[in-house]
Each structure stands twice: as structure tokens, then as C-alpha cells.
Design a protein that fits this description.
about 180 residues; mainly alpha; Helix Hairpins; 2 domains; disulfide bond; transport; Tim10-like_dom_sf; Mito_inner_translocase_sub; translocation
Length: about 180
């Protein structure tokens, strides 16, 4: 496979050289040879042909050098633009990811603040609140301690935070009397 590619490259190079040679020959012949009465070119025609071919070859070399240089610059610019586009795309993806993370955190904090407002029970509010599960004025049922009394620890008087309980899940006074 590689030998086929090398052979094609050699053929292409030979074709380009022959095209250039034929172009130079035709151009310089038409420019310099004007007397067709003799078999060989005169001295003036020979010097014109040498100058013409030298100029044409130098021009072609400069042209090819500039063309290759231009192609390399375009390639570097294209690669730089592709790298820049990739950076912008990665930055946009990071920003989108950060925005999405911020939205998730915001929704979690909103949910947390809703929950924390229900969970954060103030000890003073609990001690001032009177919770009674027993039937009113029934001396046979012992006094039920307040939640602050149940949840306080004697060593540092700290209060354990608990989530509020829905009233429907609390036992009714009648059920608590039956269990006693």
C-alpha cells in the first residue's frame, strides 16, 4: 500500500516537473527566438533564453516557497481557530454545568430552608408551648412532659432538633388512655 502511494507521489512529481519544463520552454522560446533561418540559436537568442529560464525558475521557486508558507500559515490559523473554538465550547460546557449545579444547590437550599423552618425548634418556644395528650381534668392520667423536657439533656441543657409530627399521626387522648 505504501509503495503504491510513493509511486503515485513520484509520478505526480514527474508530471509537475515536465509541465513546468514545457511551460518554461514554450514561454522562453516564444519570447527569445525570432529568426528561423538558421539551425541553431544565435548568441543573443541563447543569452535571452538563459536569462529567461533563470528568471522563470527563480520566480517559480519564490512562488512555491510563498505558496507553501501561506499554506502552513493557513493550517496553523485553522488549528488555532479550532483550538479556540474547542476552548470556548469547553468553557460554555463548564458554565452550563456550573449553572446547573447552582440551580440544584438553590433548589436544595430552598427545600432545606422549608425543612429547616419546620425542623428548627426553639427550646424557648417548646418550653412555652403546652402539649397535652391527656383528657382534660382527668386526675388518673399522669401529666405528660413537654417535648423540651423530654428532649433536653441535663449535662449541657441542649435540645435535640426533631422534625414536626403531623397531628394525624399523634395518638389521640382516648387511645393513649386505653394503652395505660
Amino acid at each position: 500500500m505504501s509503495s503504491t502511494l510513493a509511486n503515485e507521489a513520484n509520478q505526480r512529481g514527474l508530471k509537475d516537473f515536465l509541465t513546468l519544463y514545457n511551460t518554461i520552454t514554450e514561454y522562453c522560446f516564444n519570447k527569445c527566438v525570432s529568426n528561423f533561418n538558421e539551425r541553431s540559436a544565435s548568441g543573443q537568442e541563447r543569452s535571452c533564453i538563459e536569462v529567461c529560464t533563470d528568471n522563470y525558475v527563480q520566480f517559480n521557486q519564490r512562488f512555491m516557497f510563498n505558496f507553501v508558507d501561506h499554506q502552513e500559515r493557513r493550517k496553523r490559523e485553522t488549528e488555532a481557530a479550532a483550538i479556540e473554538a474547542a476552548k470556548k465550547e469547553a468553557l460554555a460546557a463548564q458554565e452550563a454545568q456550573a449553572q446547573q449545579a447552582a440551580e440544584v444547590l438553590e433548589s436544595l437550599s430552598a427545600a432545606s430552608s422549608d425543612t429547616s423552618s419546620m425542623v428548627n425548634l426553639d427550646a424557648a418556644a417548646l418550653s412555652n408551648q403546652q402539649v397535652s395528650l391527656a383528657a382534660p381534668e382527668n386526675p388518673s392520667v399522669p401529666d405528660v412532659p413537654s417535648p423540651a423536657e423530654v428532649l433536653s439533656f441535663p449535662e449541657n441543657n441542649s435540645v435535640v432538633e426533631t422534625a414536626p409530627v403531623a397531628p394525624s399521626s399523634l395518638p389521640s387522648a382516648e387511645n393513649s388512655l386505653k394503652n395505660v
